[in-house]
Structures
1.
Amino acid sequence: MNKQTEKPKLSFWDIWNMSFGFLGIQFGFALQNANVSRIFETLGASVDDIPILWIAAPVTGLVVQPIIGHLSDRTWNSLGRRRPYFLFGAIFASLALIIMPNSPVLWVAAGMLWIMDASINISMEPFRAFVGDMLPADQHTKGFAMQTFFIGTGAVIASALPYIMTNWVGLANTAGPGKIPPAVQWSFYIGAATFLGAVLWTVWTTEEYPPEELDRYSENEPGEGSIIDAAKKGEIDTGTAQRKFTIGGVLIAAGLALTYYIYGANFEQELYIFSIGVAVFGLVMAVAGFMQQTLGKDEHGLVVVVSDFLSMPKTMVQLSAVQFFSWFALFAMWIYTTAAVTSHVYGTSDTTTALYNEGADWVGMLFAIYNGFAALIAFALPYFAKLTSRKIVHAVSLLIGGVSLASIYLISDPMMLILPMLGIGVAWGSILAMPYAILSGAIPAKKMGVYMGLFNFFIVIPQIVAASILGTMLRNLFSGEAIFALIAGGGAMAFAALMMIFVDDKAAQEMNEPDALEPAE
């Protein structure tokens, strides 16, 4: 091949710098995952209401990520293509991290979660596309593995911060009714500074390829067409409008029928989130069809995004099932681990007691352990993928994670919880790297951003489903015992491992990837 049309291989430190912002992103994400349920409970939420309060996070991601991906594919200014979104999201996420632990009432905390998650998504989505932009195909696994390392490292520190603030610094981990402990507050303040600082490092140290250069490189990558042209027009097949109407109409009818059934059967109100969501998704698709067919707006962003969704590459469709069950399991774990461990292992649900807060702090440490192990396993993933395949590595990792998550039910000693966290760390490390490495080799370079954003649907939709049904399941099937949500999550992750059998990773067959994240050459 002509070297002028190939992206140059980047050194270890180049990949380090372009991925460093993920340290800050995961700082914010981990503080949210490990502490928001605790904040909600402290402000008066009951354990079976927590999924509904968490619903802001996935809904926000569902809306924000495709939009940001679409816009970043078509952006070029003095900061570049993706970096403006890194920076904008970091600024607002940092502000939300400062406000969240000072929420005076529950609805303020729920609102801050919404803003925080939207801002994190604005920063996170372009980072996924950044790997496809900056690295040649045979370094994609390496790039996503480096992101996994920073995700794990950031999460270790952030998850452990309340414990560190209490046991090393001496801040109180208890407070009066309705008050957030100082140890948690200061953890969020540190997280805000880290988030912004890490993203600024990537913005300052990494130069993006200009559109003309990316256009030249894209000739040797999946898909055809010009990145420059893609920034100017949608390139939409005008014959897809009727398909949008048909699918949209079916989804609207199904959503309304399901809503009516839920109402007639007097089921819990959170199930409306799922049924109405189906109808709204159908409405969006029908509106896109109307804009395309009747108004002739083939280049409108909504039409482009919906059209891209309906024409997803085969590998992306196959990975969607794996992502759905993987992230259902993760969402169950993030919502219910605090409640499950404090009640099932520590024997208390009273948020004002020292024993509850000791258990909640230990959950933070457990989250730090699985994230830390994921950071370490990230360096081994390219080796294992080279020896076997990316499919096998991901399937085995998910199976280990599913068995580990379900096994928490069998544990009564808090220290023994470290063992399943190591298994969950294996799965988490693979979830953050392997699906994206497989996907990036199967989507067009000119649409890297929007397809990475659309791929987020299969992270968000299972979270909405989990938020809709887990509370109902706990109340009606499991007498409010949060530990059973973790068992359900373990089963879902094991099923995701089975779904990897059907994924076609053609890109891996066409190249020989480097063995590992070796030092600079």
Note: The mean pLDDT is 82.
2.
Amino acid sequence: MDNTVSLTAATHTTCPYCGVGCGVMAKTDGVAGDSRHPANLGRLCVKGSALHETLVPTGRLLRPRVHGRETGWPDAVAEVSTAIAQALATHGPGSVAFYLSGQLLTEDYYVANKLAKGFIGTPHVDTNSRLCMSSAVAAHKRAFGEDCVPGCYQDLELADLLVLTGSNAAWAHPVLYQRMQAASRPGRRVVVIDPRRTATAELADLHLKLKPGTDTILFNGLLHWLWQEGAVDEAYVARHCTGFEAAMGAARASAASPASVARQCDLPDADVELFYRWFAETSRTVTAFSQGINQSNAGTDKANAIINCHLATGRIGRPGAGPLSLTGQPNAMGGREVGGLANTLAAHMDYDTPGARTGVAEFWGCRGIPEQPGLKAVDLFEAVHRGDIKVLWIMGTNPAVSLPDSARVRAALERCPTVIVSDCMAETDTTRYANILLPAAGWGEKDGTVTNSERCISRQRGFLPLPAEVRPDWWIMSAVADALGHGDAFAYQAPVDIFREHAALSGLSVTASGGRRQFDIGVMASLSAAEYDQMTPVQWPVQVDSAGRFAGTARLYSEGGFSTPDGRARMVPVETMAPGQRPSHRHPVIVNSGRIRDQWHTMTRTALAPRLLAHRSEPFMEVHPTDARRYALVEGGLARLTGTSGESFVGRVRVTSDQRSGEVFVPIHWNRQFTARGVATELMQPVTDPISGQPEGKHGVADLAPLPTRWQARLMRRDASGWRAEAVCPDGYWARQPLLHCDSWWLASNQPVDWPRESELWLGGRPQVFVDDPASGRYRAARIVDGQLQAVLLVDTCAEALPDLAWLDQCFNATVLSDEQRRYLLAGRTVEVEDTGALVCSCFQVGEKQITRAIRAGTDSVAELGQALRCGTNCGSCLPEIRALLEAHRVEASSTGRRDKVLAD
């Protein structure tokens, strides 16, 4: 998107994607970064830049549905409340469960927690944030006594040593990556710790490509080395920490020397020592960590091993120094504030916080709070599978795709007597199991607050009118509460009413020792509706300054004063633990999963913007060249990963030495609406961290083999209604890719097809033009009605032989095909149309071949390519790939020059 878009009367709101929490200036026809928002200072990634393209009616859920029948809100609310009341009367409060989402606004989260724990009386309220941030939460609470991120984004720029571990920020948190990149300066160093060489590693002065699962060994080794080298701040530890000796003993036992660490982590000795030396000599050090640390059966220990090193050196809460957890979702932290996790109560209070249960019950005016924490996500769905949960209410998330062993999750949903789903989309892998489907407001319609990774509360404002039968989540839950007889406690008229109550409750939050917690926004409990509407971003804890304005706090614990009974931080002894899913003879390959640049979660929003599917248009797997040879895989071919449960993942092979041998990377985003067998969680078993309950989503195991195919095809259709790829290709592979003017599919199978006979079924009618060459395995056909293109089918023996679809997509935009379009239709493009190659820059649709041609013509820098092609000049997410193409050309030119010299000599 061009950032020069006119934004007259644009609304200040926030992005609904990752935890960076970028400010957005939004209109229905364009968005731009908000230069006044402290998180992004005007920057946006490609997903944020395309937000307005997702504001389409395609697939929207617009009316309540009960047992497949559309109805009005009175009937829908009555059905929900009746199901809950019957479950309570027959089976008790524990038979009702809520599964929430980091996509909810804080106000929605607050009402859900209050309704469930306070008035229904069930502790079983968990959230998909369990899948991304709960290990960081548990580590913060063990170390600091409270779930607090001590630092802020500015520290990423101020740090003289930036350590990025388990984080592909270039793709998962692009705006923060841009800020890190812009802060480069002489003397500043960056260490990237990741088994893969990702786009983020381009920033690295040192990349530690460690063996998966060995992070605790690396950081335990660092802690022991700091002590040996006299780099521990003993005065700080004596004043502000407990547990130093126990933590040091555990570190010594697992990682006695850099050589031992290097051997266990499969790293060069010199690289380990260099990292340790840099850490020891750099006082301004930030260690930023994300899903690669959290999504592990030892995620909490990994995070505490990192925090131990910062506590031992006194690098907490200082400018440019501290551990910084990079949150996955836009409001994962807001959900944590209000008690959205099953093991928390509300306002950063826990079930075992003295007086908390009584205090919260009195504040809410309910009879009591459950005595024990509820079930965490994986255990919750296992309880659904057993039949213990009779009513399950899912809001704004897609657990049929995102939870591990998703086949078992689907079976659980099938068994549950009443599944209620609140969503803005009608068809997801989860909504198909809903007995009651409730149309909730989406981004652009919702109004409330979110909290990002640096504790910054921002307003997410609506700028679109609500469709007639669509309601905000807080309204839906309040209506159900009223139907259950609790209307007086849920008589909210607007989100500001909920926020004021939430803020007031935070003012009651206490630590076990009676001191006040860091999470405190109590001063905001009296703000007016106008003040709420005009609220600017502020970091908690919030105070009132001398001018009477709300003032935030950038850093915590700079003078100690941790949220523990004695005010001291706890250094935690960390024992090393092997991953729960280990390779075997039958399943020899380690499977890592993660996000890609242009997609978000399970694609229910991002797939509405066709250009966001252009960069990676179908499921794929990245494989090391050695493994490609070992398993007879070819670049661009299809391959199958088969997990221990027997379920499989099929994707396009990408051969790269960025991947470690014996390991494969797959993306998490594809679901069964977009592919037959491309759901990453099918390969992950429900192994969890024993402390946090977070699933081990980064370390599955599988068998790997090529997928035999007789033919591969691309199908494009103007009207896709009623057409199902699985119906015509039941035993093969398919992946859907919406385009700007039509819908399209990748298809492949090993079964023979009589194309002249069966093409009508694929095209929706008889083709008017076709080419059939059985000897070469090639078939081309197009259906044209009254001069307008309706469908195109392209078949060949391999995908590489199929043309790019950009020109064909434009043909679907024509009311009547021109003579030139008809002439070149089955070729896929005219001779005058440039073959752009694989997409690199999503913002300006610039392909790899375009960039390569420009480089070979003498355009030899990122800046010059930006001037010539505009690539890399908007969100910057494609810059690592552009630099890689430049470097590849330099290597090729150097190699060619050497060969020419040899020949000349």
Note: DSSP finds 30 helices and 38 strands in the chain.
3.
Amino acid sequence: MSLPDADRELVTAELGRDPTPTEAALFENLWSEHCAYRSSRPLLSAFDSEGEQVVVGPGDDAAVVRLPDNDGESETETYITMGIESHNHPSYVDPYDGAATGVGGIVRDTLSMGAYPIALTDSLYFGGFDREHTRYLLDGVVEGIADYGNAIGVPTVGGSVEFHDDYEGNPLVNVACVGLLDEERLVTAEAQEAGNKLVLVGNATGRDGLGGASFASEDLAEDAETEDRPAVQVGDPYSEKLLIEANEDLIEADLVQSARDLGAAGLGGASSELVAKGGFGARIELDRVHQREPNMNPLEIILAESQERMCYEVHPEDVDAVAEIAERYDLGCSVIGEVAEGNYVCTFNGEMVVDVPPAFLADGAPMNDLDATEPTQPERDRPEIDLDAAFEAVVSAPNTASKRWVYRQYDHEVGARTALLPGDDAAVMAIREAGTGLAISAGAVPAWTTIAPYDGARAVALENATNLAAKGATPLAAVDCLNGGNPEKPDVYGGFKAIVDGLADMCRDLSVPVVGGNVSLYNDSIAGPIPPTPTLAMVGAKAGYDAPAAAFAGEGTILLVGEGGDALGGSELLAQVGGSDRFPTLPENASDAVATLAEVADAEATLAVHDVSNGGLAVALAEMVTAETGADIAVDGVASLFEETPGRAVIETADPDAVEAAFEGVAPVTELGEATTDGTLSLLVDGETLAVDAAAIASLRDVLAAELD
């Protein structure tokens, strides 16, 4: 890419001269879709981002949220950070390094707020699982995430894996990170005072990742896997681990006034945004940047996206102390310049190569005014359904099958905070500082947003909230990663606009502020655009760290709470057997239903809770069966077994009357049957019977491991 003519004219008019080559490249990257959100920013005002729990909202490296104090002994308030990042194009070109550096980037966003990273989630989207190329990408992405996350000692505790044909030429890798801090450690990416030094700490700068921001803002070409490889960063998790610990020491010693990690657009992006947010400029000497390759020119130094680097604002008298800590961890350290009044100025060997107004560089990109075509839903054309064949097809489908092959490769217990492991509705982290359990859920269902972008996105938000409530947690806040195709296509932009509005509306209904996020557009390839994909990472809080199991205990009555939408649109059933339908109608009182479910999940009589989502009731029940426990279930109609209306949950309880009383006036409660101790799921559906034992269910659900091991 190069700076478009229209943008060049704006820059020339602002500067009163032609931009230097380095300036032109800097504007090209910082005004790209990836950095400036030129097509999406006009839509993002739809989100509510405020609440008494919100300490730092959108616009910083990560959001900061206040946790409830459930032990009453904390002298300072306990905060968490939340951030999410996409590394989509790099993960197609180089799945291992693309995914690994996505982890590294979101972890450094966490560090820059003064937090220590405690949990990761990964939401992954690939083409059809039956394709060899999909399995190659999946294998590389999972290995990259595992190797990087495991090496830096941050547990990967949740996420999702989805397969859909329209990701064939452009997979998505969305990674979220949660960090922990208290009010005294908080740092922001807003420069504080002119005269403070700008210090670069971490790996030496090389030529890797050049133009990564602009690369992320264009459609993938047919030869992207070979031609675009230089735009993919190369990660070093062992340096990142050292950087994590060095950052911890710097924060503890109160040596950091502000910070920003070096991600998109490298040093130019981090340093210019840091000073612009504070209303300052900068004086930077690019030749003082520690480098690992010879003869680097100023454009390469300022835009390289070499990993494991942080930019700190430091009081002049503290520079030596910062250098000592960097040396202790064998990290490079360069005093590259200082915060200043006026313009953002960079020199190289004494010559000016950049001299621009920082606010114009950081926020001056013009927004796009694009046409949008409103999406429509398909007509109802339901096929004839054979119970046995449908159950087998849906339970064994890659989207609903066990994802254990993925998460078993991650270290999900490092740090000794993981109270509830992957494979459940939500992970639960023990925040002992506040006596609080932090539940985490992340993901999206592209089948839903493909046929109904607006309602599908609402369903994604409700589904994540239900996951938290099923573990007894009340939703607290969320971050989103909004993925779409080429926004210049009216149908693509119409679908993208719909997922933004749908996600915003349901989060508002749930009283969940969306405190930050990421946008990734131009996810198009020769295979076409991806589905509009609104990945959501949501956290919830509860007193203590215990949560009900998602497997039958074998002792209680089995209830279904929540009302179905009497529609199969977006369901795995239709994906397997064909046909079409509209998307289910969602409940009008979602917030009350979620709050009630969280209350019931924590009740002493509750033996098990599992939400109903992908694959519907059939998959939820199958996932609850163990070798020792099963269930005798009766359902009215095959469609009721497979429709995927979110906001519902299966509850095994020793006190069904109490559950019905709790949900009175909130949501219907249907008695499905009784739990058993025979390890078999026995279904009676409209006079038809089906019995499947735990071993057969496990075999059906083991499709990923069967193909990939």
Note: The longest helix spans residues 132-152.
